Amino acid sequence: MRITISGPPGSGKTTACSKLSEKLGMEAIVFGKIFRELAAEKNLSLGELGAIAEKDPSIDKMIDSRILEIARARDDIILESRLSAYMCSRHDIPALKIYITASPEVRMSRIGVREGETLEEACAKTIDRQKSEAKRYKMYYDIDIEDTSVYDLIINTDDLDPDQVVEEIIKAMEARK
């Protein structure tokens, strides 16, 4: 089964993706890693690369064409990216589409711990990043990233540990079969 996992920064989507991959023995591809690697190669922060991507659509288009290429080629894969659910829906590629979210307070706290930043630094960087992504996705794809109607399951991780999140996804998979 093809599974997409999306959500805002700090929601727990990458952790859920990794744990689900381990539990099911399925390959997981995390597209945020590609963006991070590209930023590191160019010696830029995520925010700086995001600002460049607002003027240069080729950055997002390269990543998003890779999502489609992999989704079309693989039936059993986990794709973690902001746009994977939208891309599969728009191109009639069957997938279980999961949206993982958490309150802003929880997300910012997680990001601060992960990045070794203060809560204020994490908030400022994350808000800038989210604004840039929302702008680019609307501009390049006419996608409103706040529209969750494309998803089959929405999981709030505020009060769930990663294993509980994975169990929710597995229940949805079983219900779909």
Description:
Helix content is 60%, strand content 12%. It is an alpha/beta fold. It has a single domain (2-171), classed as Rossmann fold (3-Layer(aba) Sandwich), CATH 3.40.50. A 5-stranded parallel sheet has the order 2-3-1-4-5, sandwiched between helices. It is globular and about 45 Å long. The N and C termini lie close together (9 Å).
Structural class: alpha/beta
Number of strands: 5
How far is it from the N-terminal to the C-terminal residue, by CA? 9 Å
> Any idea what the CATH architecture is?
3-Layer(aba) Sandwich
**What's the helical proportion of residues?**
55-70%
CATH class: Alpha Beta
Mean pLDDT: 91
What overall geometry do the principal axes of the alpha carbons give? globular
* Major sheet summary line: 5 strands, parallel
Please name the fourth-level CATH homologous superfamily: P-loop containing nucleotide triphosphate hydrolases
* Radius of gyration of CA atoms, rounded to a whole number: 16 Å
Beta-strand percent range: 5-15%
- Regions with little confidence, pLDDT below 50 for 5+ residues: none
Domain count: 1
Looking across the biggest beta sheet, what order are the strands in? 2-3-1-4-5
